[in-house]
Amino acid sequence: LILVIDMAPLMSLHRPTLSAKSVPHLPPLGRRVSGVIQPPRMIHQPNHDRTVHRAMGSRRAAVKVRAEATSSTSVVPRVRAQPAEPQGLRVPDEDFSIAKTSFGSIASTLGIGLLTYGFGAYFQFLPGQDVAAVLLIYGFPITLIGFALKYAQLEPVACISYQKAADLRESQATNIQNQLRNDVTRFRYGDEQHLDEALKRIFLVGRPGGISRRQCPRLVGIREEVSGGNYSLVLEFDSPRLEASVWEERLAKIQVFFGPGVAAELTTNGEEKELQADLRLTADGSGEGRGEQLETMVLPPLAPGMPARTVVVEKKEEE
Hints:
9 helices; 5-stranded mixed beta sheet; 319 residues
């Protein structure tokens, strides 16, 4: 009698389960030499080290290039040329003018003060609850006006005056020289830089045959000196994007623009990307440009979109 028994269910019941103890211990990857396990051998190790050194070298080169680029964009200190003749002692600017005061600082300080006291009085931390609403109503617009003026204001440039030049200012300086000194040593609002309109007309900024806006020089300071016994006003410009040849081409036009009665002289210092130009306007002693009392009138444009017109007329005497 032959019995046919299906052994599959029985084998599933006695199937061994794998555990950590039942798994044989595998030797570590590597070679065993005299009981010491050595790490696996690295293939192409010299090439790997060479790659690492190349990567580190390229990183150092990138850092070096970045450092050089940062140093090239830093502000270059201005080197002023020493006057050829003695000028005397420096004279401090003691002339008080309301135009030399920042209206933005005054308005913002006043507005913040009104708002602070108004909130304190409203919440009864300070006396004056009856006027708290008035202080808040006037404090908000005054503060906004002050912040707007601070944003749009243009700081005055530094003016270095010497005693001998200050003594000759009243007797030799032309009207345009005095106007230049007064305009650039006060706060201005809405202008991108000092002498903006003058530079646009001299260098034809944005016009055919002129220069671009990025190439326009920037006025950074003025000096009052004596040159050849005559009063001289020196305009200091930073001109990193404008070549010295362009300055020399416009020198005749500069003299006509700031004349009459002055002689223009140009001195450049530094390299091409660090060019510094000193424009010296010296009174020629002829007396032209002094006796005439002129004033500039701004007329509305002829058509919408056109710039405003400026007309120079004789100043009327007050009766």
